Amino acid sequence: MKQVDIIVPIYNEEENILTLYQEVKEVFSVLDYNYQLTFIDDGSTDQSLPVLRHLKAQDPLIHYISFSRNFGHQNALKAGMDQSTGDCVITLDGDLQHPPELIPTLLKYWEEGYDVVYTLRSENEKEVGFFKRISSRLFYRLLNRLADLEMEKGSADFRLINKKVVRILQGLEEHELFFRGLVKWVGFRQVGISYEPRLRTSGQSKYTFLKMMRFAIQGITSFSTKPLYLAAYLGIIFSLFSVLYVPYALISYFFGHAISGWTSVIMIMTFFGGLQLCILGIIGLYLGKVFTQAKNRPLYIIKE
Ligand code: UDP
Ligand code: MG
Description:
Helix content is 51%, strand content 15%.
């Protein structure tokens, strides 16, 4: 029988672990697969870890990895994938928003020969908040425009990955992971299916607005260097404009109303000041990426 590795990142999901465990167990009770459920405790500060310890003692199919601190959702997924030895991996969130009853469908497509079966969140008004819907749509539009990567809106970290592709992902040592992009980037036969996300029943979303922004910027700068070109283009355009300004300055000087230029000077100064800061910021983002990659620290540290 084929072995399916289920990977679930957990960050303060004490109320959700047991329900998820039961649902997964139920799904597999009618399937012809061996499975193993691995939780990655991403430095939870609630009772998640004790709950996991307890569960592991009860059921030999349960495993867990506990990080020494919070390393982030994407690194938790990577840790789960790194330890996988099964024929495929299925990743799903620990908050039950990714319905386990979709697992048989994922497996069905896998059996048909797809190497990656990813899921798309259907944008149901009720389940996905207005803000999340709009910001997510905007993000994918921007990402597709900037990166050479076709990503559908509503992509989620709920997917099945074949062993062959898992091996490749295990070998990557990329920092600031953006799995959605990476999985698309590896290629192979892929298929997307849509699902209705559930409401988060307990606990709250760990992705605050700032975290989401950071994640979006990480995603874009991981897959595109076009923002750097933008900086260069803007630089060229504005230096052309400033050449046009020289005759105006000269005429003003010779025809004697030079002092009246104060307003325009201030305006130009503040404008270019802002533009330069913005461009430096973009360059800084990429430099920061080189910096973290050069240090090559581990993506996560396992405590237990
Ligand atoms: N998560 C994690 N580390 C973090 C943040 C989140 O392991 O630093 C887990 C979290 O427990 C959940 C999944 O990642 O299982 C998705 O997080 P969440 O549901 O908060 O995100 P949202 O669904 O709101 O995008
Ligand atoms: Mg969630």
